[in-house]
Amino acid sequence: MDIWTLWYPAYWLSGVVKASTAIISIYTAFALISLIPQALSLPSSEQLEQANRELELALLKLQQTQAQLVHTEKMSSLGQLVAGIAHEINNPINFIHGNLNHADIYAQDLLEVLRLYQAAYPQPAPAIQHFAEERDLDFIAEDFPKILSSMKIGAERICQIVLSLRNFSRLDEAEVKPVNVHEGIDSTLLILQHQLKAVTGRSAILVEKEYGKLPLVECYAGQLNQVFMNLLSNAIDALGNQRQKNDESKNVGIRENAKIRISTELVDRQWILIKIADNGSGMSEATQKRLFSPFFTTKPAGRGTGLGLSISQRIIVEKHGGKLECVSQLNQGTTFFITIPVMQSRTQPEGANSAAPLISFLPAQ
Predict the structure, then answer these.
(1) Residues 42-66, mean pLDDT to the nearest whole number
(2) pTM of this prediction?
(3) Distance between CA 365 and CA 269 in Å, rounded?
(4) Which helix (H) or strand (E) holds 207?
(5) pLDDT value at position 358?
(6) Residue 180 CB contacts under 8 Å (≥ 6 apart), including other chains
(7) Residue 303 — very low, low, confident or very high, per pLDDT cuts 50/70/90?
(8) CA dist 233 to 61, 87, 188, Å?
(9) pLDDT tens per residue across span 182-207
(10) Number of C-beta neighbours around residue 334 at 10 A
(11) Which DSSP letter does residue 318 get?
(12) Cross-strand pairs, 277
């Protein structure tokens, strides 16, 4: 019986399985022993969370840098385009404007000769008298100088526009230079003039300017113009949406009051304060908290990238050592406060931000 049991196949099969399991277990144990140091060297959950935060921060900085490079390239292209247009307009308009003075003198001389002829020959030939009556010579003599005067005014206006375009086109200037901040604001308003005018379904936006007496300010003129462009464009968009809603509801009173107010003042002889305010619909506190976050926008898809205010804050804070802040309430409008030093040499890139006295001018929120 014992011999039979010893040679029974089931007994051998069970033994082989048990032996194989034992061998595999021993081999696995030896393999795991070699992995113990590696397991002990794995980072903890806190370390993993810290690494994730650092990666997210690095990704955010990369996105911001990429967005700013793209935006700067677009603004630089815009500056080159504006500079090219201004240059092409400047040459012919100077030719016209310079010759209008001579044309005015020549016209006055011709009219004087005509009057002398009329005085010397009060009874001209019938053909001349008929032609003068048919062409209304007296009206021409009276209106021609007015035409030349209006042409001269128009040419001077174009010269002013060309000058403003040339001032705005300093977008690619990389050096800090003393500039007239008011010229930069006026140039930006000129570029946006077509958005301020009345169109079908929308009334015009009134722009009120209260400029203080400011010295020349050391700054990156082109980048500061970018900030003005972004802030004024946002104000126009806010008022544009409001005007469209008011037009649909036939609320004419609010439409006629749509306005942007720009004021400047000198603070402590070392800082300038620029306020850009609109009487639009305002913003909620939740929107204000994310206002300067990259890629955040309240505009419909395709109309805003969410980069303008983020880049503007970096230009004011990092490039100029100043501050850019916003105060807004729903149905009360929005005001942006820009504070930058008059002299960049008086501020340090790292510590200048805390020196800007902007917060003392902000009303309580």
Answers:
(1) 74
(2) 0.58
(3) 27
(4) strand 206-210
(5) 42
(6) 214, 216, 217
(7) low
(8) 25, 25, 10
(9) 988 998 888 888 888 877 777 788 99
(10) 22
(11) I
(12) 261, 335
DSSP string, 41-60: HSPPHHHHHHHHHHHHHHHH
CATH number among 3.20.20.150, 3.40.50.920, 3.30.499.10, 3.30.565.10, domain 180-346: 3.30.565.10
Decide if pLDDT at 208 tops 70.
yes
Of 192, 274, 265, the closest CA to residue 234 belongs to: 192
Query: What type of residue sits at position 357?
Result: P
> Does an H or E element contain 261, and which?
strand 259-267
**What radius of gyration, in Å, describes the C-alpha atoms of the chain?**
37
Contacts of 281 (CB under 8 A, 6+ apart): 238, 241, 242, 330, 331
Q: What is the β-pairing status of strands 259-267 and 217-219?
A: unpaired
Please tell me whether residue 276 adopts helix, strand or coil conformation: strand
Give strand pairing partners of 266.
Answer: 272
User: 28 or 56: whose pLDDT is higher?
Assistant: 56
Cα dihedral 300, 301, 307, 313, rounded to 10, equals: 10
For the chain, percent of residues with pLDDT exceeding 90 = 13
How many CB atoms lie under 10 A from the CB of residue 225? 28
- Separation of alpha carbons 354 and 10, rounded Å: 86
Separation between Cα atoms, residue 26 and residue 38, nearest integer Å: 20
